[in-house]
Write a structure and sequence with these properties.
The complex is a heterodimer of chains A (about 180) and B (about 525). Helices cover about 75% and strands about 0% of the residues of chain A. By secondary structure, chain A is mainly alpha-helical. Chain A folds into two domains: about 100 residues, Rna Polymerase Sigma Factor, Chain: A (Orthogonal Bundle); about 70 residues, Arc Repressor Mutant, subunit A (Orthogonal Bundle), CATH 1.10.10. With about 525 residues, chain B is an alpha+beta fold. Chain B has three domains: about 90 residues, no CATH class; about 150 residues, Jelly Rolls, CATH 2.60.120; about 240 residues, Sandwich (Jelly Rolls), CATH 2.60.120.200. Classes of the chains: A mainly alpha (about 180), B alpha+beta (about 525).
Chain lengths: ~180, ~525
């Protein structure tokens, strides 16, 4: 799984290995966290914590074993810890559902490459306006309201449009993944 | 069934609220109950979350930047350049964001009321070609009725063509002629013959010739220019102002002739030298008959093709009008639901109109095959939704074809299972609405290609990666999707338009065969 760079000092080799593995699985780890903590700002915090835990504990990872499985275990633990801290405020999905979701996610095949290609392709398929809306919505710090004011439309109209675009992207991505990637 | 369908709709609504962090306690409970014990709902939830994660990620979300920044410090000196990840396909740099903001802001004002439909551009034009009779155009020009005409030169080798200028003047052009459109109220007749009718709003219509300039003041007149530049003007009604070497005004019953030196003389008016609407209609009828017969003869050979799995010519409705006769040797007649009979490519040619979302034709074909060709003559009247679909199998299982036109004008073949998604670039636009087009898609395992054709011409080809048996087996919908259930947004794939020929063949047609089908079937020559 990891290539070795025999000419590198061990510490640099370790950093290089981690970087490669982490970046390979980062989106999926983030996906898991976002599935379980759907508040984006919270999910971002957990992702950040999780990343630094992964790096700190990287010594415990056995090279050649499944990095994603190892990272997921840690990410799940971080999510549960966060949920315990947050329990007092706001409604949350129950632990049972969270466990079920996490199990399904971990068991599902990782198709990150297909997914990334499919998403890029599907984004290209959107018309310019839709694509621009997605771009605006996912600009760091943006929310539906800020997008609405930028495009001079009501929040509700933008919200509905984003719902539609998400549905469209989701269907498009799934269609493409089901067929083994983009044409 | 109904319950779980509305549940699916509700789930998507809740996911939208979730995305925006707006779920209240009650909605969380509702979401939980929708997810609980429903594997499909869970999968959708997870896919949705993953989509958001991927979108956030590829747009350089705050978290990612922060993550990498926090990692960068301890790691920077540990990571040799070659071990750093290859440049990722980050979607856009921030400089582009500013541009997009402006773009979105300006487009959104336009598009939001129409719910963010694709940004169609109409080429506009100066005039529209409305009728042709046995018209043959010079070179590559392939003009069929309904086509908007741009500024430029039309060369009609033979036959008649009626051109209606957007300002209101109507011209019947008789080939051979070279006619140049300059503006919506101005044209040049380089040589040839025309008859013009100008209604009151179009007064002031100008036609120039090499020797003269005519300003029309609400008339009907004939104009001919030979290749030497000799020009004749015959006024049948109203009056025409002539600006040449000498200014003239001609009234009904007057004619004038300019020789190549620009000298002019009065001549008697000859109505019969200039073909008008009646001649147009007569020639047009004769041409229609000829074209229909030519098409019918070719259709008969297609029907006998041993590879014809199903072939519909939309010509022989039964007494109920609810059966679509399969002309292939299998005679697997299809059921018409909702769709009404209407007129096809030619007057008197049958077609089915698909308008309402329930309109469809049902076919049921047992065949499996290694290669196939889909071909249809369609008149698309609107790109109403993402997908308008000439053919959809009910399920999207292994090897099942889904054939679409997207609202971006792409021709798409999707193959279920581990097939693929073969999409052309956007080829059709508003200018193609209301005109008859031929679509064909050929899947050829011998060359491992999937090829799309539009009007007999190859427009897209991609490699066929997965060789397999294709099946239309089980029920399928023509002009619509017939899978059971409540349809939302992208599931609504009904065609808005007409279809008057449709064939499925279990072999790969050659480019020549597709072109011949087009040539034999095109509405006008």
């Amino acid at each position: 799984m990891t290539e070795t760079h025999p000419d590198l000092p061990p510490e640099q080799q370790r950093g290089a290995d981690f970087m490669r593995l982490f970046l390979e699985h980062e989106r999926r780890i983030y996906g898991l966290i976002l599935s379980l903590i759907p508040q984006w700002s919270d999910a971002d915090d957990v992702m950040q914590e999780c990343t630094s835990v992964l790096w700190r504990k990287f010594d415990e990872f056995q090279p050649g074993t499944n990095f994603a499985a190892w990272a997921f275990k840690i990410a799940r633990f971080q999510v549960l810890a966060f949920r315990k801290r947050q329990r007092r405020d706001g409604a949350q999905l129950s632990d049972e559902i969270i466990e079920q979701l996490a199990d399904r996610l971990v068991a599902s095949a990782d198709q990150a490459d297909h997914r990334r290609d499919a998403l890029e392709n599907c984004l290209q398929r959107l018309n310019e306006t839709d694509r621009a809306l997605v771009q605006l919505r996912y600009t760091p710090g943006a929310d539906t309201k800020s997008v609405a004011s930028q495009v001079a439309r009501s929040t509700d109209a933008v919200y509905k449009a984003l719902n539609r675009i998400h549905g469209q992207l989701l269907d498009c991505v799934q269609l493409r993944i089901a067929k083994g990637g983009a044409s | 069934m109904t319950n779980s369908q509305s549940d699916a709709g509700r789930l998507d609504e809740l996911l939208g609220a979730l995305r925006d962090g707006q779920l209240d306690d009650e909605q969380v409970a509702e979401l939980e109950s929708l997810l609980d014990g429903d594997p499909q709902a869970m999968t959708r939830y997870l896919n949705y979350a993953q989509l958001c994660a991927d979108l956030r990620h590829c747009h350089g979300s705050a978290s990612r930047v922060a993550d990498l920044a926090s990692l960068a410090v301890p790691m920077a000196e540990h990571v040799p350049p070659e071990a750093r990840p290859a440049p990722r396909r980050v979607w856009r740099a921030s400089a582009a964001v500013a541009g997009l903001v402006a773009l979105a802001a300006s487009l959104a004002i336009w598009l939001f009321p129409r719910e963010l439909r694709p940004t169609f551009t109409d080429q506009g034009g100066l005039a529209v070609l409305t009728l042709v009779a046995d018209a043959h155009w010079e070179g590559e020009q392939a003009l069929s009725p309904g086509v908007p005409l741009q500024k430029g030169v039309l060369e009609l080798r033979s036959g008649l063509a009626q051109i209606e200028f957007f300002r209101g003047a109507v011209v019947i052009l008789e080939g051979p002629a070279k006619f140049e459109l300059v503006a919506d109220d101005r044209a040049i007749l380089h040589h040839g013959t025309l008859r013009s009718h100008v209604s009151p709003p179009a007064q002031g219509f100008v036609i120039e010739t090499p020797r003269a300039k005519l300003i029309d003041h609400g008339t009907e007149f004939g104009l001919s220019v030979n290749r030497a530049g000799e020009t004749e003007v015959h006024v049948f009604e109203g009056k025409v102002e002539l600006q040449g070497a000498v200014a003239h005004q001609l009234i009904a019953g007057q004619g004038v002739r300019f020789d190549s030196a620009g000298k002019n003389e009065s001549i008697p008016v000859r109505q019969e030298s200039f073909l008008g609407p009646a001649a147009m209609a007569k020639t047009s009828d004769a041409e229609v008959l000829r074209r229909r017969n030519e098409w019918a003869a070719h259709a008969a050979t297609l029907a006998r093709d041993p590879a014809a799995v199903a072939y519909f010519t939309f010509e022989h409705p039964d007494a109920w009008g609810r059966t679509l006769q399969d002309e292939s040797t299998h005679a697997r007649d299809a059921a018409i639901i909702g769709s009404q009979w209407s007129e096809g490519r030619w007057p008197g040619k049958g077609a089915l109109e698909f308008k309402r979302t329930g309109d469809r034709v049902r076919i049921d074909l047992p065949d499996a095959f290694d290669a196939f060709t889909l071909v249809a003559w369609l008149r698309i009247d609107g790109f109403d939704r993402w997908l308008s679909s000439p053919l959809l199998t009910d399920t999207y299982d292994q090897g099942r074809p889904h054939w679409h036109v997207t609202w971006h004008g792409e021709i798409v073949l999707g193959i279920g299972g581990d097939g693929n998604y073969f999409s052309s670039r956007g080829l059709l636009g508003v200018a193609d609405l209301g005109r008859w087009i031929q679509l064909a898609t050929v899947v050829d395992p011998a060359t491992k290609t999937v090829t799309h054709y539009l009007d007999g011409k190859q427009v897209h080809q991609t490699p066929l990666r997965v060789l397999q048996q294709f099946r239309i087996a089980g029920p399928a919908g023509v002009g619509n999707w017939s899978r059971p259930g409540v349809f939302r947004d992208n599931d609504i794939r009904s065609l808005n338009g007409r279809m008057d020929e449709f064939g499925i063949f279990s072999r790969a047609f050659t480019p020549d065969e597709i072109r011949t089908m087009y040539e034999k079937g095109k509405p006008t020559s």
